[in-house]
Write a structure and sequence with these properties.
The structure holds two protein chains of two kinds. Chain A is built from three helices and four strands, in the order βαββαβα. Chain A is α+β, with helices and mostly antiparallel strands. Chain A has a single domain (about 5-95), classed as HPr-like (Histidine-containing Protein, Chain: A, 2-Layer Sandwich). A four-stranded antiparallel beta sheet of chain A has the order 1-4-2-3. Chain A is globular, with a radius of gyration of 15 Å. By secondary structure, chain B is of the alpha/beta class. In chain B, strands 1, 2, 3, 4, 5 and 6 form a six-stranded mixed beta sheet that branches. In chain B, α1 crosses α2 (about 45-55). Chain B is globular. The mean pLDDT of chain B is about 90. Classes of the chains: A alpha+beta, B alpha/beta. Chains A and B meet through α1, β3 and α2 of A and α2, β4 and α3 of B.
Chain lengths: ~110, ~160
């Protein structure tokens, strides 16, 4: 068994992208892997498999740093980075289509 | 941010009548309306928006706790409602368990940030199971508010 340590910086173009739902998805996904994963944002770091500390990252700003250690470290980093990227893409897509009632709720009247 | 900064005292429901997710959301939205923070005619629009967001991903985060939330043009400031169901409500939660404690959060379109702090504050319940358990058993609004204060005054997990 090869134990890898893999880290990645994931930029977040929209701070609000990392809200409750993607973070819940991220925790659920992280729990499917064997590697230990730490996610850091701003001044906070959290075990990516623990719900409460991960949710505490939502009000922080900027990108996240992922660090995984274990036999599937590379795979878990890729999976979590994809969830974050998708969340950012979703927000940007909603900004482009403000009449679709998307966003983290209805965007009717969204500036 | 403290829970009482946004959870409306008039929108604390000790025992929900709802038995399904749509009913829970509607009952909590009605509580916000009764508290004077949303117009009656916007109820359907808000509930629909909440349900649309639930389809993207459930806000049932486990341990019987659910935090449905949505931004809406008809809301003037960050507001919240609290509800409890002794029987539990099927909620597609992460752990598959029924949800029993609900915090509904609504905030204005175009405002980013405060709702994330609100959700982070509520999520502290996951690491304070004693407070969560007592919320499920509390019988009066005063008990609920006292437990909110206890959670607000408790330290977050050090990490």
């Amino acid at each position: 068994m090869t134990v890898c340590v893999v880290s990645a910086e994931v930029p977040i173009a929209r701070d609000e992208a990392l809200h409750l739902r993607p973070l819940v998805e991220l925790v659920a996904r992280a729990q499917q892997f064997k590697s230990r994963v730490v996610i850091s944002r701003g001044k906070r770091s959290a075990d990516a498999k623990e719900m409460m500390p991960v949710i505490q990252l939502a009000p922080e700003h900027g990108g996240v740093r992922l660090q995984a250690e274990g036999e599937d470290a590379r795979e878990v980093i890729a999976a979590l980075a994809a969830i974050i990227d998708q969340a950012v893409q979703r927000v940007m897509a909603e900004e482009a289509q403000p009449q679709n009632g998307a966003g983290e709720g209805t965007t009717r009247g969204d500036p | 941010m403290r829970l009482t900064d946004f959870v409306l005292e008039e929108a604390i429901i000790r025992e929900l009548r709802a038995t399904s997710k749509p009913e829970v959301l509607a009952e909590l939205v009605r509580a916000i309306i009764a508290a004077g923070c949303l117009k009656e005619q916007e109820a359907d629009s808000v509930v629909t928006a909440l349900l649309e967001r639930e389809e993207i991903g459930s806000t049932g985060i486990g341990n019987g706790l659910a935090i449905p939330h949505v931004k809406h043009h008809a809301i003037g400031r960050l507001v919240g409602a609290f509800g409890h169901s002794s029987a539990g409500v099927p909620y597609d939660a992460l752990d598959g368990e029924p949800a029993r404690v609900f915090f509904l959060i609504l905030w204005p379109v175009g405002v980013i940030g405060p709702h994330l702090e609100a959700i982070a504050q509520i999520s502290k319940l996951l690491t304070h199971p004693d407070v969560l358990a007592r919320l499920k058993m509390s019988s009066t609004k005063e008990e609920v508010l006292a437990l909110f204060d206890q959670l607000d005054d408790s330290p977050g997990r050090a990490y």
